[in-house]
Design a protein that fits this description.
47% helix; 17 helices; rod-shaped; six-stranded antiparallel beta sheet; Beta-Lactamase; alpha+beta
């Protein structure tokens, strides 16, 4: 101390520097003032302050002079490692010449150091770290007086650093309390998360005395700022976590001005919270990282609560929408309006690029009946065959909502318009009475675009779609049945008045074509083993246009099969049925419905209804055709019975005429016979009493004429069958009547 008393200026400088250091409670400012004071006191070329972390196991550079800030940010030593580690562990100052030769030395700076003077930073019985002074030129030790002054200053610096750390701890505790209150007292309304996160960033920035705080989130082009706070004017923030950062989650960044911590949010790429200081020598302690971690946890809580509130709101909206859908399904009669309404509502809850409803028309094909977001014209006929993406495929694959992240990974995916753009796909089978009637498809033009919640919502909408379609189908079937019954009733009345076969067949064919719009209607009758086309309405109206196919064997085609077996055949794709035989005049036929005209077990003919689109027929068409075929069969049978009746009547009339004529002839013969009898009897009496030859000759002429008249009478009696009243041959009574003896 005698040296110090001899150096009053040095002592005064020490006191001034100590007051300067004590004047601030900002740790980084205190560290900067300590570095400047030690530099002024010692003239050292390299100075660093290394502090123990909260665990007490590692020393890191908190402030430095003469070292690149980018380099000093990564410097650390374990307790007991290197000169500074030894000094901190033993709480003793140490000055080493040519330190590279000292076994305790560990080189952490690139420049060769000739002298190292390290002093412990002690507060009472606790060592905070060490101040390291070094010279890179010259090998002389630091002057003992200087060393003593620096050692005294180090004790003051340690107290100042401890006070600043304690003040920061109090400030951070207060910040935690404010953040907690901020989050707990925040509005529970949806959509407030963004504003609340901005307030958290502002509170964090002020507490950390940072220049910028930002919440960085992943995007298609890397990380970008989701929310920011800054002291000055904001500029674009460029930041991306490296692999090590993502692995550790809360490490100090490679740049000493940044600290960042992961926000524990759901998702493969969670957001990060960063704090940035524009000072390159900013020292971030564990306390700052802990506060950053606490703020990140609060943001996680805010985001989770926002998700929960949004989910609750979404659930309420979904419940309301589903209720509206149920009402719409019951109130709306038009199926197209119902389906369009449901697809529009679906877009509120599932973000999609396109969606559609396909309904079965037979076991192999489903046709698009409603769509939203497609690029093609919805008026064209779009058909799904049995394969990946079709109702039949879902029926066999899995009878519930199915999510395919990338349809390009599915072999033989359906080739329909927009297929090249569709990547993500959700398919919901539409099930009514345990039967799959169609599919709801939801498309996204990017892969892996949907989440499980989307699949669940899609299933709910699919269930309502199935109900809506079934209600519309039941109503449509009821209306169709009513219309069909009315038509059949009207037809049955008109058919009963038709007595001509050709007129009957033309009337039925015309009715089917005009009333129900079928592409082609053909009616043929079976004659032995030949099917003869008798009537046609549609593209072909004259049976003569069929040429050689106006009549053909019942062994030919689908019509021949029905003519042989008497069973209804509905084929919605004739190209897939080997029984089909083309007719040159009807090359556009794509589907066919054939019913037999049967009376009892007798097959009278067939009604052939042809369509120019695949999947054109359903059970309503079958019901109509079979009902009309039954009416036609009855009408044909009636016409045939009527013809037989006419023939019987004609025969009866002819018989009656003959009978009347016979009775007339019989009466005339009887009267004439009586006259002839008188004439003959009187003539014979006169001949017996006449002797004159001339008179006798005249009487004989009269007699012969009477006999000729009698012969004519017998012929009349034979015609009138009256002559059979007496037997003309010998009759033995014994053989006819048995006489008891």
């Amino acid at each position: 101390m005698s040296d110090l008393s001899a150096q009053p200026m040095m002592m005064a400088a020490l006191l001034d520097l100590s007051r300067l250091v004590y004047a601030s409670l900002d740790l980084n400012e205190v560290l900067g003032r300590v570095i400047a004071a030690v530099r002024d006191l010692s003239g050292a070329e390299v100075i660093s302050i290394m502090l123990l972390d909260e665990s007490g196991d590692h020393l890191t550079v908190a402030a430095a002079y003469g070292i690149d800030p980018q380099l000093s940010a990564g410097m650390s030593l374990r307790l007991g490692e290197g000169i500074a580690g030894w000094v901190t562990l033993n709480s003793q100052p140490l000055q080493v010449v040519n330190p590279s030769q000292d076994p305790r030395y560990k080189r952490i700076v690139p420049d060769e150091q000739q002298i190292i003077f390290s002093l412990p930073l002690r507060v009472y019985d606790r060592t905070l770290g060490a101040i390291n002074l070094a010279r890179t030129s010259g090998s002389a030790l630091f002057d003992p007086g200087v060393a003593q002054v620096v050692e005294i200053f180090a004790s003051h610096a340690a107290i100042a650093i401890s006070n600043a750390a304690s003040a920061a701890a109090l400030r951070y505790a207060a910040a935690r309390e404010r953040l907690t209150n901020l989050v707990s007292q925040a509005s529970q309304s949806p959509g407030t998360a963004t504003a609340l996160i901005e307030r958290i960033l502002a509170e964090l920035g002020v507490a950390l005395e940072a220049d910028l705080c930002a919440l960085m989130g992943p995007g298609p082009d890397g990380y970008s700022a989701l929310s920011t706070w800054s002291v000055g004017e904001q500029s674009a923030i460029l930041w991306e976590p490296d692999a090590l950062t993502q692995e550790q989650g809360d490490q100090i960044g490679a740049e000493s001005c940044d600290i960042y911590v992961i926000v524990q949010d759901r998702g493969k790429m969670p957001p990060w919270l960063i704090a940035r200081a524009l000072r390159p020598d900013r020292y971030w302690r564990r306390a700052e990282r802990d506060l950053l971690r606490f703020a990140a946890d609060q943001i996680t809580l805010v985001m989770a609560r926002e998700r929960l509130i949004s989910a609750e709101q979404r659930s309420r909206d979904l419940s309301t929408t589903l209720s509206q859908l149920a009402n719409a399904c019951n109130a709306m009669i038009d199926q197209d309006r119902v389906l369009d309404f449901i697809l529009e509502q679906l877009a509120r809850f599932v973000s999609y690029d396109s969606s559609g409803v396909f309904l079965f028309h037979d076991e192999q094909y489903a046709r698009l009946v409603a769509g939203h977001g497609y690029t093609f014209d919805l008026s064209q006929t779009i058909v799904l065959a049995a394969g990946p993406g079709s109702p039949a495929w879902l029926n066999h694959y899995d009878r519930r909502a199915t999510y395919i992240p990338d349809v390009r990974q599915i072999t033989d995916w359906q080739d329909v318009p927009d297929s090249a753009m569709i990547r993500s796909w959700i398919g919901v089978p539409l099930i009514v009475n345990e039967s799959v009637i169609g599919v709801l498809t939801i498309d996204k033009w990017t892969p892996s675009a949907f989440v499980e919640a989307d699949v669940q919502v899609a299933q709910m909408f699919g269930d309502h779609l199935a109900v809506a379609i079934n209600n519309a189908r039941l109503l449509r079937e009821a209306q169709t049945r009513a219309s069909q019954i009315q038509v059949i009733h009207q037809l049955s009345g008109s058919l009963s008045a038709i007595s001509d076969v050709q007129t009957l067949l033309d009337e039925v064919a015309g009715l089917l074509h005009r009333t129900f719009g079928y592409y082609q209607v053909v009616i043929g009758l079976v004659e032995d083993d030949t099917l003869v086309i008798r009537s046609a309405q549609g593209i072909v109206n004259d049976v003569a246009e069929f040429g050689e196919f106006r009549s053909y064997s019942v062994q030919r085609g689908l019509t021949g099969w029905v003519a042989r077996h008497g069973e209804t055949v509905m084929v919605n794709d004739v190209s897939r049925d080997p029984r089909y035989a083309k007719t040159p005049t009807l090359m556009d036929t794509r589907s066919e419905l054939i019913v037999a005209i049967k009376h009892g077990e007798t097959i009278l003919g067939i009604i052939d209804i042809e369509g120019n689109i695949s999947g054109g027929f359903n059970q309503s068409d079958v019901y109509l055709a079979e009902s009309l075929a039954g009416q036609v069969a009855v009408a044909l049978a009636n016409i045939r019975r009527y013809a037989e009746l006419l023939r019987a009547q004609e025969q009866l009339l002819h018989s009656e005429r003959l009978r009347a004529l016979g009775e007339l002839a019989s009466g005339i013969a009887h009267d004439f016979n009586n006259l002839l009898t008188n004439i003959l009897s009187h003539t014979k009496l006169l001949l017996a009493n006449t002797e004159e030859p001339e008179t006798a000759e005249g009487l004989r002429i009269i007699e012969r004429a009477a006999y000729d008249g009698a012969a004519s009478v017998r012929r009349l009696q034979s015609f009138a069958q009256t002559s059979r009243s007496l037997p003309t041959e010998e009759v033995h009574i014994d053989s006819i009547v048995a006489v008891d003896k």
